[in-house]
Amino acid sequence: MVSFLLRPIKPRLLTLSFPSTLYLCPVLDLLLEEIPVELQLDLRLGLQEALVNAAKHGNHLDPSKSVSVNYKREHNCHEWVITDQGGGFIPPMVCPISQSEDHLPENECECGRGLFILFQVFDQVAWNPEGTELRLAKRLY
Asked: Could you tell me if 43 and 33 are in contact, meaning their C-beta atoms sit under 8 angstroms apart?
């Protein structure tokens, strides 16, 4: 009889803060270091989109403003909370295209391409009421 010893996965927390920039490779590398290789490309695309939105649209690439990311892993759930110092925006409740079609939305869609990507990649996409904080979650099955 073969038995396996399952080690519990310890929760992990990581907090990063960086000036509004589009140079995100080192940040993305840190945020993805605990993600299985087969999921890294999709999650990298989603996180990159969220970080670019925070730096570019939220903070208007103002180097005096920063973007912060809190990462948490508990069991099989990975969560990222991305906060910018911008004026916020009115986030969509859902991306209707993401629920019905497999192709990128046209420009006239209220849910732009970046938001479409977020809704496709992550299991949970939610903003605070001010639209300055984005919570992304991915369950690994």
From this structure: no
CATH number, position 81: 3.30.565.10
Based on the structure, what is the number of domains in the chain?
1
pLDDT digits (tens, 9 = 90+) for 63-102: 999 999 999 998 889 999 999 999 998 877 666 554 445 5
Tens of pLDDT, residues 8-66: 556 689 999 999 999 999 999 999 998 989 999 999 999 999 999 999 999 999 999 99
Average pLDDT of the segment spanning 122-138: 95
* pTM (2 d.p.): 0.82
DSSP track, the chain: -----PPPPPPEEEEEEEES-S--HHHHHHHHTTS-HHHHHHHHHHHHHHHHIIIIIISTT-TTSEEEEEEEEETTEEEEEEE--S------S--HHHHH-SSPPPTTSSS-HHHHHHHHH-SEEEE-TTSSEEEEEEE--
5 falls within a domain: no
**Is 7 inside any structural domain?**
no
